[in-house]
Amino acid sequence: MTRSQDNNFGCSRCKDKEALSFDISMAFQPIINTASQTVFAHEALVRGTNAESAYEVFKKVNSDNLYPFDQTCRTKAIELASNLNFEQKLSINFMPNAIYQPELCLRTTLAAAEKYNFPIDRIIFEITEGEKVDDLEHLKEIVDYYKSRGFLTAIDDFGAGYAGLTLISEIQTDIVKLDMGLIRNIDSNKNKQAIVKGILTVCKDLGSEVIAEGIESHEEWAILRDFGVELFQGYYFAKPKFEGVAEINFPK
Question: EAL domain location, by residue (predicted)?
Fold first, then answer.
């Protein structure tokens, strides 16, 4: 029996709509297309209500409140994106271990999208590869269901987590985000260059777009651009803006 078939602890909380016991907000960091000099998406990054860091927020998260935290993050991100009149895509991180039955756990997201008039085909759900997932089949069910409902999906921090190439061989997402560990100083590291070139080839064959995240220098951007990457995210272009739209430095 898979977790999605097990009407357990998590799903009872879904039905009961348990509220989170503390408030959160979001900062937004743009993901840009440097070829077209446009914004592709804005990633929602959790913050405290007084702009406290994600680290401070996550200190309050535990196994007892993981589900309402995940749901609250989705709703808050959609609400703020709507208030800020985002016309681009909205990227939201989600925690696979907080999802039990995808069709039930998605109801809050669908309700928020309808309430705030934010099109679901502009919402990207990012799977954080750094979170260990014991049930790969369950994760595949989640991704397949989200895609069937019209959402886009992405693997975040690819190259940093537990599954690596096994994950993208089993679960095909629309987008793969390269972890900053692969990106840092890639312009002077031949090993990283070879690895990233290989990943780009695999993603092209699988039909997944690639985003290089964590760009901090012109040199890192330039070599990845030369490799054919068009979508980028990082402090070199823009820092996250708390409850607002970041100012972007488009490279020449």
Answer: 1-252
